[in-house]
TrEMBL record:
Keyword annotations: Membrane, Transmembrane, Transmembrane helix
Species the sequence originates in: Flavobacterium capsici
Protein name per its UniProtKB record: Uncharacterized protein
Annotated TM spans: 7-22, 34-56, 63-79
Domain of life, source organism: Bacteria
Length: 173
């Protein structure tokens, strides 16, 4: 078998193993620091296999040395993709601007709640409102103890007054 064919097959196997592992652990953003450990670990495992094969089946040793770099790159991108998948399954969010202030609406899909945050130019973000999130067709209703907002066709209604409509920008991850 040629070197390219061996590398291709090994890359497919690596992709399947890493993809299933990342899907199983379902990484959240707080564990992204784990990349500092798992990427070098994947390289070291492949290099250890290359050393063992150097003494038993030399023709495969070179494949695992090259694969150590390929699998590290795969691990990095699949782990990042796993974090994005985790976030997309749990949250959706929108932003809008008022003067030099950025507002964000974050919908937690798991418990159907929402929160609103405000960010200023100085970079500080403050959560100022929480409540229930209800979906009715293509409309979303955000209710708290004292307020009710509606999102329809990417517009927020009732933010400052009942006739106010504000264009929202959906955050795509």
């Amino acid at each position: 078998m040629k070197l390219f064919t061996k590398l291709f097959l090994l890359t497919i196997i690596d992709f399947i193993i890493i993809w299933f592992w990342v899907k199983e652990i379902d990484p959240e953003p707080s564990v992204s620091i784990a990349l500092v450990i798992v990427v070098p670990a994947v390289m070291l495992i492949n290099l250890a296999i290359a050393v063992i094969l150097y003494f038993t089946k030399r023709e495969y040793s070179k494949v695992f040395v090259i694969n150590s770099f390929i699998s590290a790159i795969l691990m990095y991108f699949l782990f990042q993709n796993g974090i994005e998948r985790h976030q997309n399954l749990r949250y959706e969010s929108w932003t809008f601007n008022r003067k030099d202030t950025i507002f964000a609406i974050i919908h937690s899909k798991l418990d159907n709640t929402f929160s609103m945050t405000v960010s200023t130019n100085q970079g500080s973000t403050t959560e100022f409102l929480e409540g229930k999130f209800r979906e009715n067709g293509n409309e979303y209703y955000l209710t708290s103890d004292s307020t009710e907002y509606k999102i329809r066709n990417e517009y927020l209604f009732g933010f400052r007054n009942s006739t106010d409509s504000i264009k929202l920008t959906k955050i795509e991850r």
